[in-house]
Amino acid sequence: MPGIHHITAIAADPIPNFSFYTRDLGLRLVKKTVNFDDPATYHFYYGDETGRPGTILTFFPCEGVSPGHQGIGETHQTAFRVPLHSLAYWTRRFAEKGIRHGALETRFGESVLPFTDPDGTALALVGVREAENEPAWSNGEVPVEHAIRGFHGVTLLLDDANQTAGILTDVFGFTETTREGSVIRYKAAGDANGGVVDIYESRSFPRGYQGSGSVHHIAFRAADDAEQSQMAQKLIHNHGLHPTEQMDRNYFRSVYFREPGGILFEIATDIPGFTVDEPAATLGRALKLPSFLEPHRAEIEDILPDLEAAVA
User: Fold this and answer.
1) Contact in structure between 34 and 43 (CB atoms under 8 Å)
2) Torsional class of 150: left (φ above 0), alpha (ψ -120 to 50), beta (otherwise)
3) How far is CA 210 from the centre of its chain?
């Protein structure tokens, strides 16, 4: 099933990030681990009940990091899908919680509620007809009938869409469906979570730079190692790109490359999934470490802040 596997962003402080996504937005903390390359910092995975591909937003919280700046070569906005009738609920909730949000607007015939997280990450809720029939996770505060159903998609800000579009269509199985002003919409087959990529094409914006509030990379789905390898070969032979070797991220296996506009893309396998090291019922409760970091668990746990105590 083509589409987005996960999206990874950068935060400045783990405590407000954890509180916002688990309590204000009602997502499940599917996995609590560390940045494998910097184990003194958390790596959070938020999603639905089991962390299905297409529902996972992950964060590297890096205390003291400077704010990023949106511009060319960056992700412009990350959008979640909710039932169409739930947008009124979320508008009220944002007002009650003091969450920065814009007015309801219409894009490609869909109702969209833009908002930002504590770091200024650009987000949106998209009202989707019959999304109430899709799986949903409730934290007990956000009623299940209004809960987020995973990703709708992302908007990329590029000065030229052509080469990136070639990768979306040839490698990832998207199709251009329509245009609205300077925005071109690409959709994956079916109606899967994370099945939309919009390219906002503009040559008037300056280039962006990353920091807190920025998307670090976007991961697209591959069913398994074989499909991932086929995609990587297409990148090499059809597009002249040089993806990395496969890297084991415990819950999926990854290949990375920069698409022609400069955005870091990943190809992530659907397997083995987030229940490989703990049952679905207790996902996200314990700190999970890769085997090479287990000998340093005590030291790592001493450094990381206690999330539950901090937001109690």
Assistant:
1) yes
2) left
3) 15
Q: How confident is the model at residue 309 (pLDDT cuts 50, 70, 90)?
A: low
Structure tokens at 15: 């405590």
Q: Residue with structure tokens 């029939």?
A: 133
CA angle in degrees (0–180, nearest 5) for 293-295-299: 85
CB atoms within 10 A of CB 9: 27
Q: What is the pLDDT of residues 108-150, one digit of tens each?
A: 999 999 999 999 999 999 999 999 999 999 988 999 999 999 9
Residues 6 or more apart whose Cβ sits within 8 Å of residue 119: 10, 11, 12, 17, 67, 212, 213
Query: What are the tokens at 296?
Result: 């340093």
- Decide if 77 contacts 197 (C-beta within 8 A): no
**72 to each of 202, 263, 283, how far by Cα in Å?**
8, 9, 37
Terminal CA-CA length for the chain: 39
Numbers of helices and strands, H then E, in the chain: 6, 16
Residue 138: which residues within 8 A CB-CB, separation 6 or more?
26, 144, 147
d(CA 305, CA 19): 13
Would the pLDDT of 311 be above 70?
Answer: no
162 contacts: CB under 8 Å, gap ≥ 6:
none
Question: Do residues 57 and 48 lie in contact, with contact meaning Cβ atoms separated by under 8 Å?
Answer: no
